[in-house]
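Please annotate this fold before class:
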Amino acid sequence: MIAKIVGLFHRQKTDYVLLRMHDGAHEKKPVEWICGRPFAAPFLPNTRCELLPLGKLIGQSYIDGWLPASDNMLHFFKGAE
């Protein structure tokens, strides 16, 4: 019970990125942290891409890159993990 109450006060803010598609469109998507690495899914969870510093990524071919849309992701974008 106490852990549940403490958890309500210490919620982490969700990180966001703008995924840049091949057609020039940008999609704002939430970031999912898995084992300390950021991932974002443009559509369904199985389309998730691993985000790398400086806007690079490993994943779907129809995504050119990403831009930070939250403070934590701006820090990651610049290369500091």
About this structure: The two ends are 33 Å apart (CA to CA). Residues 17 and 69 are 5 Å apart (CA to CA). The mean pLDDT is 84.
